Amino acid sequence: MTQKLVVVGAGMASGRMLEHLFEAAPGAFDVTLFGAEPRGNYNRIMLSPVLAGEKTYDQIVTHDAEWYAANDVHCRFGETVTKIDRKAKVVFSRSGETPYDKLVVATGSAPFIIPIAGKDLPGVRAFRDLDDVDAMVAAAGRPGAKAVVIGGGLLGLEAAAALRLRGMDVVVLHLMGHLMERQLDPAAGYLLQKELEGRGIKIHCKAQTKAILGDAQVEAVLLEDGTIYPADIVVMAVGIRPEVRIAVDAGLYVERGIVVNDQMVTSDPDILAIGECVEHESICYGLVAPLYEMAKVAAKTLVKQDAAFRPVETATQLKVTGVTLYSAGDFADAEDREEIVLRDASAGVYKRLVLKENRILGAVLYGETSDGAWFFDMLRKGTDVSEMRETLIFGQAYQGGGQLDPMAAVAALPDDAEICGCNGVCKSKITGTIQEKGLTTLDAVRAHTKASASCGTCTGLVEQLMKLTLGDAFNPAAVTPMCGCTDLGHDDVRRLIKASRLKTIPAVMQELEWKTSCGCAKCRPALNYYLVCDWPDEYADDYQSRFINERVHANIQKDGTYSVVPRMWGGVTSAAELRAIADVVDKFNIPTVKVTGGQRIDMLGIKKEDLPEVWADLGKAGFVSGHAYAKGLRTVKTCVGSDWCRFGTQDSTGLGIRIEKFMWGSWTPAKVKMAVSGCPRNCAEATCKDVGVICVDSGFEIHFAGAAGLDIKGTEKLGLVRSEDEALEVIVALTQMYREQARYLERIYKWAKRIGYDEIRRQILDDPEKRKAYYDRFVFSQKFAQVDPWSERASGKDKHEFKPMATLTLEAAE
Amino acid sequence: MSTMNWFAIGKLEDIPLRGARCVETGNTKIAVFRTADNRIFALEDKCPHRGGPLSQGIVHDGCVTCPLHNWVISLETGFAQGADEGATAPFPVRLEGDRILLGLTDMAEKAA
Questions:
Q1: Second label for A191, Cα 20 to 30 Å away, from A16, A183, A258, B59?
Q2: Spatial contact of B43 and B57, defined as CB atoms under 8 Å apart
Q3: Is residue A805 less than 8 Å (CB to CB) from chain B?
Q4: Which of these ranges, A197-201, A397-401, A754-758, B102-106, has the smallest mean pLDDT?
Q5: Would you list the DSSP string of A641-676?
Q6: Distance, in angstroms, between B111 CA and closest chain A CA?
Q7: Beta partners for residue A696, in sequence order
Q8: Which of B59, B67, B95 has its CB closest to that of A143?
Q9: What is residue A810's three-state secondary structure?
């Protein structure tokens, strides 16, 4: 016969228990579920991401209406149980009495509110449920809004980080000497504090809150030392206490929490309790793993199966995007304990293990937590670690096979072991070449052996071999960071953008742990380019991260005016085009007209407000932007070729125009200038360009990596192709390879020198599949890039760029 | 007597996030900046270095980088950051709701 089961509390523990129950004995119970919140079970742990705006409420719902219906659960959400009558076996609520055969109390916990003046003011919130989150989100919506979070524990810091992400000024007040003192030791607490301060959160430790100030609404928080922090919202996150009121009223045995035995049964055999409201062997739990364990045990007890809850070790992870922090077990100092500490200040890594008799008691990991689960596993099992003590702190990767010294593993490799799979280079080839040629740098080893010169995944191994061969003489080259906002170099950032599929600048800065809140004038344009290049169809170009020239599609001059260069395809123009330019120059009183080195015409000294009209007039004559301001394709310079020239071997003008029409509009790491000469006399000066073509009788010689600016350098020859089509494909593929691999602002000649001319030849000329893939990716990205920016703006786009916000006149002032 | 005049010059959303707009006032052009966290600042639109239009620079944290020679200017104080020395004049500016108010003292004198 069906028994009546009443569950008080619709939190994470009760949701999990019902799942187990319906699985073990479907239909055995007629379930009524009470919940004080007007909604069903959701994953409370994920409230922080909801507050941060990284997740929505819908994404954290664990049980929806359908699930309750499918299991015939009578849901009484928004209805608080006020009383339990144990004799009559009924519970009381707003709608009357509900009888039970078995009762499960899962009332969870209540936030602890410090008893100070002002604690009841509107604007003082806990961080406990979705209503709190909604209130905080609403407060964060006001520009310049300020939040004070009282409590620097797990919950308080997650709230603080999330509110900061929402743009609020956030202060964290913490009573103790360092953050998260229950989970962290002072050193890790310090690193965490530094990280959060770096995000613009103010941390005030040893802060005694005296009162919350305000009349009708919270206005500020006053500390004992007299400090006042203005606040539009105050979040109390100082702790929780088990919610035991109805259990006390019902006369159940309650200490700090509702006392239960191993079967989760309270002092009344028909009443069970689970979750944060419970006390088991004098311990109250607040983390989810033990609560789930309780849920499992309670479900079994209800269906009369044997199960026992045993005290568990718990591990903690802070859910703040970009902060990696893990702590488990007990790490207090004591006579009979030892500790192993690893600090890497440059990488922001801190690890500490506390041992007793060769067994791990506690672990704190900051900055690098991938070994957390491994340490935790040994902690729980009480594994004897004496065998691996020396390298224990370095993590699992350094263990196994009895190898304790990481270098020993490389030293022990046989001479014919393949180190670089891409280029088939074995160990003896690398060590031999290092000695023979006296190589001391990774670049030199790459140049001579090709090891680690392609995909780079064996770089670590190659560096270890160098260390092994050269001893202390080897000093791995430090990566130059992109800028002061990060320790990562351009190459690492580019790789991580792709590997982690990062598609916005804030995502890059979060995931790669940028040290500033929104980057600087160096990294933002670089990141914007990388994202435009890697996700052409998905990334929304951030114009505020572009240099002014690219933002307004003209070149800023020293007096704040602009110059405008329309495209003249391949340097060819006509009477109509020249007439249109002359008219524009007259109409807008353009002071200077100059022929550029790229075979086109530059109009200088145009007022910013006039730009859209200038473009509109030029557009009517068929002109589009010449991108003279862009890190992108500038010009393709040509000579007159076989059309007119008695020496011309091919139609160099036609090829130049074709290339320019195919490639205009694409963004590149730095500017790209090209040229096509109709014969080896090279009148178009193709051999000092980023990419150049020299036409010969037998076809087209493709050149690249020239320079004629800060540096002067003749081009390298890439190879000879027979047809115009092939020439175009090779040039496009080369440009795409450069787009994908180069560092922002790195011209082709520098990039090519860095990765090697042969590597480029191998990928672009010798490998048709690779070439085609590069070509296709370029063509795909052009679909989104080939939009004339001038006509867009002439028809009203980005109007705000070109007009003053307001013009204040004398009359207005008086 | 010096008078402070507050002018409503527009709304918060008129300025792009991490961007700037200009306000023309007689002889002085004022750049009004909006930071990533929706704070508003106003500076004379003139870099202390070579007079570059700061309103055209990239806005990051509480600073703007001048488009001409990459001087970094504090939006709050107008002072050049790092090793560079110099300052541009800050103007008082306030956000009331989403309305931006710009404060000018003795504007008649300045414009004259």
A1: B59
A2: no
A3: yes
A4: A397-401
A5: HHHH-SS--S-HHHHHHHHHHHHTT-B-SS-EEEEE
A6: 7
A7: A699
A8: B95
A9: helix
- Tell me, yes or no, whether A805 lies in a domain: no
pLDDT, average across residues A108-128: 90
A696 to each of A635, A691, A693, A728, A763, how far by Cα in Å? Answer: 22, 16, 9, 16, 24
Min Cα separation B72/chain A (Å): 9
Gyration radius (Cα) of chain B, Å: 13
Give A409-414 contacts, CB < 8 A, sequence gap 24+: A410/A461, A410/A464, A410/A465, A410/A468, A411/A468
Task: Return all residues near B105 (Cβ < 8 A) that are at least 6 apart.
Answer: B2, B3, B4, B5
Residue A776 belongs to a domain: yes
Domain match, A735 and A682 both: yes
Enumerate helices (H) and strands (E) in chain B, giving the number of each. Answer: 1, 10
Q: Enumerate the residues of chain A whose CB falls inside 8 A of the CB of residue B95.
A: 143-144
A638 and A776 share one domain: yes
Domain residues for the domain of B31 are 4-103
Average per-residue pLDDT for chain A: 88
* A506 at interface of B, judged by CB pairs closer than 8 A: no
User: Is A679 marked as binding a ligand?
Assistant: yes
Residue A227: pLDDT above 60? yes
Query: Which range is least confidently modeled, A464-478, A786-800, B73-87?
Result: A464-478
Round to whole Å and give the CA distance between A271 and A281: 18
Using 50, 70 and 90 to split pLDDT, how confident is the model at B111?
A: very low
Distance from CA of A517 to the nearest CA of B (A): 6
Last residue of a domain, one of A440, A473, A506: A473
Nearest CA to CA, how far is B2 from chain A (Å)? 13
- Domain tally, chain A: 7
Letter for the amino acid at A329? G
Contact B36 A558 (CB under 8 A): no
| Beta bridge mates, A181 | none
Q: Estimate the crossing angle of helix A724-741 against helix A523-534, to 10 degrees.
A: 130
Instruction: Taking residues A330-351, report their average pLDDT.
Output: 74
d(CA A425, CA A446): 11
B58–A560 C-beta distance less than 8 A? no
Pick the residue from chain A with its C-alpha nearest to B61: A518
Contact B108 A812 (CB under 8 A): no
B47 assigned to some structural domain: yes
Q: What are phi and psi of A566, to 5 degrees?
A: -75, 160
Cα A728 to its chain centre, rounded Å, is 37
Contact A548 B67 (CB under 8 A): yes
Same domain, A668 and A777: yes
Task: Give yes or no for A799 touching B (CB within 8 A).
Answer: no
Domain that holds residue A457: 406-473
CATH of the domain at B98: 2.102.10.10
Instruction: Give the 3-state secondary structure of residue A679.
Output: coil
Say whether B61 and A517 touch across the interface (CB within 8 A).
Answer: yes
Whether A556 sits inside 8 A of B67 (CB atoms) is yes
Please provide residue A696's backbone torsions phi and psi, each rounded to the nearest 5 degrees: -135, 170
Band of residue A283 on the pLDDT scale cut at 50, 70, 90: confident
pLDDT of A418 strictly over 80:
no
Task: Pick the last residue of a domain from A398, A417, A438.
Answer: A398
Q: Are residues A742 and A637 in the same domain?
A: yes
A582 to each of A292, A537, A573, A621, how far by Cα in Å? 79, 39, 13, 11
Structural domains of chain B, count? 1
pTM of the model: 0.52
Contact between A544 and B18 using a beta-carbon 8 Å cutoff: yes
> Is A517 in the B-facing interface, judged by CB distances under 8 Å?
yes
Q: Which of A482, A524, A544, A797 to mutate to test the interface with B (most CBs of B within 10 A)?
A: A544
Rounded distance, CA A546 to CA B58, Å? 7
**Among the partner residues B38, B58, B70, nearest to A167 by beta-carbon distance:** B38
